[in-house]
Amino acid sequence: MAEDTDDAPLVRLERWDGTWPEDDDFAGLKADVAAYGHTDPLATLRTLSEASGVPVGALVRYVLARWASGGAEALLELGTSGVDHLRRAVDEAERAGTDRARLAAYDVVRQQVGWLAQGLDDPEATYPDGGG
Predict the structure, then answer these.
(1) Which parts of the chain have pLDDT scores under 70?
(2) Residue 1: what pLDDT?
(3) pLDDT at position 103, please?
(4) pLDDT tens digits for 7-37?
(5) For all residues of the chain together, what is the average pLDDT?
(6) Cα 83 to Cα 86: distance, rounded to the nearest angstrom
(7) Which of 22, 65, 71, 103 lies 20 to 30 Å from 45, alpha-carbon distance?
(8) What span, in angstroms and rounded, lies between the C-alpha atoms of 34 and 16?
(9) How many Cα atoms occupy the beta-carbon half-sphere of 12 within 13 Å?
(10) How far, CA to CA in Å, does 39 sit from each of 14, 33, 43, 49, 83?
């Protein structure tokens, strides 16, 4: 069993199907966490590990560091699900054609941008060792 150290923390990957109010500032994130929690995130990484010889744990650390601490770079790599989430919000608002619907779409975009900006807002916390 691996030892839990500051350099190699142990994290349990868990599913989450929580509930939240519609006006929750993190409703979009929570919906994604619940939806993606039903997939096996290690399936692809196990295959990549076998093909590349890089340990699964090292790949997990890479993925987490790359996506969770990417700051503004994450905006460029939002991915298809992130872009689709934003596009759906805007499309629904335009179809409704009301100020209320447009404000709801704005809130979805605001939440996503807020999440992406975490690395910009506090770069020292995001990259405590300078990003190395």
Answers:
(1) 1-6, 69-81, 118-132
(2) 43
(3) 95
(4) 788 889 899 999 999 888 788 888 888 888 8
(5) 80
(6) 5
(7) 71
(8) 5
(9) 3
(10) 11, 11, 9, 18, 20
**Whats the size of the chain, residue-wise?**
132
CA atoms within 13 A on the CB side of 123: 7
Q: Is 91:85 a contact under the CB 8 Å cutoff?
A: no
CB atoms within 10 A of CB 52: 10
Tokens representing residue 65 in the block? 């560091």
The residue to which tokens 């499309």 are assigned: 91
Cα–Cα dist 97/8, whole Å: 50
Q: What is the pTM of this model?
A: 0.50
DSSP string, the chain: -----SSS-------------TT-TTHHHHHHHHHHTTS-THHHHHHHHHHH---HHHHHHHHHHHHHS-TTHHHHT-HHHHHHHHHHHHHHHHHHTSHHHHHHHHHHHHHHHHHHTHHHH-HHHHSTTTT-
Q: For position 74, what pLDDT does the model report?
A: 53
